Amino acid sequence: MGSCRIRNELAKLDKHVNRKRIVRIMTEMRIRAIYPKAKTTIPNKKHKVYPYLLHNLSVTYPNQVWATDITYIPMEKGFLYLVAIIDWYRRKVFSWRLSNTMDVHFYLEVLDESIRTIRFA
């Protein structure tokens, strides 16, 4: 258990103790919580590594470089997916959409709207 959980368990027993005190005592006794550490930075050796093509490019005018981002938003049951297309120079979002499914038509709608926005801008 970590210091927060120990504090909560003690509170259930009507023993109200500051979490910082629990941390200090745990440090003195060399007690640590055991939990799985995040392994988000370990790459899979089988995946192909693509080169970064923009490393020598300075973005100096609008519509020179566009970027896209897909963000997963956790909901009570499943996820919502947010797709946005952004112009790097202006830092402007051309188009974005929310969807509860991750299909290609959803992304193509956002891309089509971005292209239409550029034509009339």
Please give the structural blueprint.
Elements: H1 3-12, H2 19-28, E1 66-74, E2 79-87, E3 92-99, H3 104-119
Antiparallel strand pairs: 1-2, 2-3
Helix pairs in contact: 1-2
Describe the structure.
By secondary structure, the chain is of the alpha+beta class. The chain contains three helices and three strands, in the order ααβββα. Strands 1-2-3 form a three-stranded antiparallel β-sheet, covered by helices on one side. Strand 1 and strand 2 form a beta hairpin. Helix 1 crosses helix 2.
Task: Report the C-alpha radius of gyration, rounded.
Answer: 24 Å
Q: Which structural class best describes the helix and strand composition? A: alpha+beta
Strand proportion, as a percent range, falls in 15-25%
Distance between the termini: 57 Å
Main beta-sheet strand count, sense and barrel state: 3 strands, antiparallel
* Range of helix content: 25-40%
Give the strand tally. 3
Dominant shape: elongated
Q: N-to-C SSE series?
A: HHEEEH
Please mark out the parts with pLDDT under 50 across 5 or more consecutive residues, or reply none.
Answer: none
Task: Tally the helices.
Answer: 3
- How are the strands ordered across the major sheet? 1-2-3
What is the residue-mean pLDDT, rounded to a whole number? 89
